[in-house]
C-alpha cells in the first residue's frame, strides 16, 4: 500500500474518529428598540407622515400619504401614543393607526372575570405583576372619572374594568393599563345610560353590581333581560336575590378554596350557602356591596332595559339555559324536572 493510498483509506493523520465541531449557537435576535410616536386628535396626514419619517419608523412620508389616500383613511387615523419599530412597512403603520393599535402587545379581559383573574393574566404574560395590579386597582388611584367619585379611595375596581382587548406599551405601568380599561367603561356606559339607570332606581354602582351577577348566571344571551327582570322584581319585593355567583365570590375569599376549586367553585354545598359574608345573597337581602366580576355591555344593558315578565324564579337546565317560573310551585316543578 502506498502512502497516498493509506492516506485516502485512513484519513489524514490525527483526524481518525474525530467528531466535527458543532457550529456555535446563533444568539437570539435582539428585538429592535421601540420608537414612540404621538398622534394628536385632529392631526393631519402630512404632519403624521413627517413625524414617522423623522423618527425612522418609515422611509418615506410621501409613500405613507399616498397609501392613506388610496385606502380612503384620510380622516380615520386614530390618535394615541404609538409604540412602533424602526423601518416598518408603511402599509403596516397605516393599518395600525387606522385601528388605533398603539402596540403589538395586548391582553384580553374576559367577561365574568374577577380582578384577581385579570391580575393573573397580566402576570402570566409578563406585563405587570399580580401584586402591582391589585395594589393599583383601587378607586383612589384614578382621577378624571366622575363615576368613581362616590367610591371610597380603597374601594377595589371590581366590575369597573370593561371586558375587551387592550394594547399596552412595554414601559406601561399598572395604572396605565387600568386607566385604559376605565376609559373604555366611561365611553361605553355613557352619561345617557347612567341617567336611564337612575330613572330605574339604580346608581351606576348598583347597575354594575346586578349586571355582574347576570354575567356569571347567564349562558344564553336572550335570557339576560329576563334574569334582570327577575332580580329587579325580587329587590322591589324585598326578597333575597339567592344568586349562586355571589356565594361563589364570597367562598373565593378563602385562599384554600381557591387553591382547590378555583375562583368560581362549581358545586356549592349547604355549608357554602350559609357562609357569613355580605356577598351571600341567600343570607342578606338587597344587592351585595359591589360587583363580583367584570360584566359585558349586554349584561349592563339588560339591567337598564329588563324584559317585561312576571317571573320571580329560575333554575338552570343541563344545557346551560334556564327554566323561569312565576310561582314557587312552578319553580319546584322545574327543580324536580331539571335538577332531580
Number of helices: 15
The percent of residues in helical segments reads: 40-55%
Written as H for each helix and E for each strand, in order along the chain, the element string is HEHHEHEHHEHHHHHHHHEEH
Parts with pLDDT < 50 across at least 5 consecutive residues:
1-17
The chain-level mean pLDDT equals 90
Strand content: 5-15%
Briefly note the structural class of the backbone. Answer: mainly alpha
The largest beta-sheet arranges its strands as 1-2
List the helices and strands and how they pair.
Blueprint: H1 3-10, E1 35-39, H2 45-54, H3 61-71, E2 80-84, H4 90-99, E3 106-108, H5 115-124, H6 130-136, E4 165-167, H7 174-188, H8 191-199, H9 204-217, H10 224-237, H11 244-251, H12 255-261, H13 270-273, H14 297-304, E5 313-316, E6 322-325, H15 328-338
Antiparallel strand pairs: 1-2, 3-4, 5-6
Helix pairs in contact: 2-3, 3-4, 5-6, 9-10, 9-14, 10-14
Amino acid at each position: 500500500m502506498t502512502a497516498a493510498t493509506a492516506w485516502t483509506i485512513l484519513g489524514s493523520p490525527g483526524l481518525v474518529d474525530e467528531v466535527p465541531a458543532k457550529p456555535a449557537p446563533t444568539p437570539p435576535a435582539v428585538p429592535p428598540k421601540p420608537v414612540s410616536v404621538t398622534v394628536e386628535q385632529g392631526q393631519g396626514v402630512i404632519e403624521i407622515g413627517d413625524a414617522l419619517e423623522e423618527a425612522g419608523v418609515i422611509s418615506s412620508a410621501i409613500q405613507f400619504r399616498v397609501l392613506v389616500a388610496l385606502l380612503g383613511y384620510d380622516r380615520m387615523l386614530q390618535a394615541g401614543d404609538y409604540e412602533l419599530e424602526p423601518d416598518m412597512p408603511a402599509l403596516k403603520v397605516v393599518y395600525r393607526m387606522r385601528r388605533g393599535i398603539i402596540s403589538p402587545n395586548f391582553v384580553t379581559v374576559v367577561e365574568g372575570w374577577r380582578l384577581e383573574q385579570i391580575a393573573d393574566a397580566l402576570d402570566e404574560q409578563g406585563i405587570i405583576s399580580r401584586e402591582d395590579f391589585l395594589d393599583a386597582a383601587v378607586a383612589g388611584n384614578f382621577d378624571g372619572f366622575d363615576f368613581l367619585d362616590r367610591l371610597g379611595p380603597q374601594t377595589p375596581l371590581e366590575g369597573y374594568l370593561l371586558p375587551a382587548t387592550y394594547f399596552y406599551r412595554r414601559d406601561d405601568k399598572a395604572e396605565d393599563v387600568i386607566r385604559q380599561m376605565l376609559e373604555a367603561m366611561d365611553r361605553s356606559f355613557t352619561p345617557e345610560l347612567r341617567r336611564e339607570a337612575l330613572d330605574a332606581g339604580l346608581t351606576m354602582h348598583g347597575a354594575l353590581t346586578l349586571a355582574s351577577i347576570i354575567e356569571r348566571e347567564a349562558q344564553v344571551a336572550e335570557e339576560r333581560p329576563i334574569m334582570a327582570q327577575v332580580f329587579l322584581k325580587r329587590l322591589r319585593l324585598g326578597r333575597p336575590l339567592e344568586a349562586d355567583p355571589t356565594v361563589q365570590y364570597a367562598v373565593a375569599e378563602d385562599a384554600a378554596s381557591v387553591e382547590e376549586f378555583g375562583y368560581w367553585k362549581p358545586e356549592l354545598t349547604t355549608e357554602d350557602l350559609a357562609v357569613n359574608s355580605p356577598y351571600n345573597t341567600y343570607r342578606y337581602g338587597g344587592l351585595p356591596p359591589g360587583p363580583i366580576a367584570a360584566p359585558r355591555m349586554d349584561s349592563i344593558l339588560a339591567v337598564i332595559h329588563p324584559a317585561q315578565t312576571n317571573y320571580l324564579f329560575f333554575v338552570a337546565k343541563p344545557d346551560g339555559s334556564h327554566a323561569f317560573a312565576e310561582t314557587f310551585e312552578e319553580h319546584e316543578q322545574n327543580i324536580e324536572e331539571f335538577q332531580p
